[in-house]
Write a structure and sequence with these properties.
Length: 178
């Protein structure tokens, strides 16, 4: 008896058309956030991108040679001008968010109606962005930098810098650089 109840519950959930509509919504999401945009991105040889990375405005994203973009990361270029430029051998850990656009704040206007400000993001060669790091619009990260997990980078980082925290601050130098 109990197994019949479980089977009928399983059957009713699998046959529910809302379940299949949700599958189509997921396919659509991955189509516009990864598949379509992935074809617009310029990538160098040897670059690997996880299948669940979210891209926006791929025509304004460039990745150099030998880059790796980890699972559940986001690379969102601006809608009109803001670019994201990754040098060679950049490693982006899972959950990293890089954006070339942010909101301005005008008093008396609802958040969703705030004007956007687009500024290029430049990430140099041999840079490692740790898991769940955030890189905001207008930031330049110099060659050889390491950004710690969970850091929020709101300002430029000199080459060879090791940075961490919220907001990110310099906590060391890589290999005695700089």
């Amino acid at each position: 008896m109990a197994s019949e109840g479980r089977f009928s519950g399983f059957l009713s959930s699998v046959l529910d058309p809302r379940c299949w509509m949700h599958v189509l919504r997921l396919v659509h999401y991955y189509g516009y956030s990864h598949v379509r945009e992935r074809g617009r991105i310029v990538t160098g040889p040897g670059t690997g991108i996880a299948p669940n990375v979210s891209f926006r405005n791929g025509e304004r994203i460039r990745m150099g040679r030998g880059c790796h973009v980890g699972e559940r990361s986001f690379l969102w270029a601006g809608n009109t001008t803001g670019r994201i430029d990754l040098g060679d051998h950049v490693s982006i850990a899972p959950g990293v968010f890089v954006t070339a656009s942010d909101y301005q704040f005008v008093a008396g206007r609802p958040f969703r109606e705030q004007p956007k400000r687009e500024r290029d993001v430049r990430i140099g060669n041999d840079v490692w962005l740790g898991a769940n790091a955030v890189v905001t619009a207008g930031v330049t990260i110099g060659d050889g930098c390491i950004v710690g997990a969970g850091a929020v980078v709101t300002g430029d980082l000199e080459p060879g810098t090791i940075a961490g925290g919220v907001p990110a601050r310099v906590i060391g130098k890589r290999d005695g650089a700089g």
